[in-house]
Amino acid sequence: MKMAILLSGSGRTLDNFHERIAAGTMQGSIEVVVANVADALGLEKARKYGYAAFHAQGNEAINEILGRHGVELVLLAGYLKLYEPPPELARRVINIHPSLIPSFCGHGFYGMRVHRAVKERGVKVTGCTVHFANEVYDEGPIIVQKCVEVADHDTPHDIADNVFAMECQAFPEAVNRVHDLGVDYFWQKTGSTKE
Hints:
Blueprint: E1 2-7, H1 12-23, E2 29-35, H2 41-49, E3 52-55, H3 59-68, E4 73-76, E5 93-97, H4 111-121, E6 125-132, E7 142-149, H5 156-181, H6 183-189
Parallel strand pairs: 1-2, 1-4, 2-3, 4-5
Antiparallel strand pairs: 5-6, 6-7
Helix pairs in contact: 1-2, 4-5
């Protein structure tokens, strides 16, 4: 599938995708990278890797760019806005969340806020969830989840590092599953189809 990457920051997940595609362990091709932050390091990395890379704010501008590149799958890689795709991509947007949904998710739960909440609650296991995105934060069908143990001495930053390491495995695995099984498989499997 032809993929677009939406990001807001450093592009660590883009680095991971680029390395895995080059190694043949992640399916698909990155056609375009779009950032909603003009000076995002991820845009600089995308250009260095040879990808078409653009700064765009707002769903309309982003969707116009994606339309020019024949995108079939949109990967949210640290994109900190609620993205609204065009109708043809409505069920083809994948996000990763740094907890085991349905815990520590929803509006306002992102980045270090999640890891601080995990530490404060004293849970012994956290992790990451790769899921299809819909119009509600963290509600779409789940593709892959991976667990990470939380030690008593772990700080929120330790938890963040451990979860990100697991995200580097989970996101490519999820993309491969979608390539192998098809998008509709996940929407039908969870009964999340909207009538």
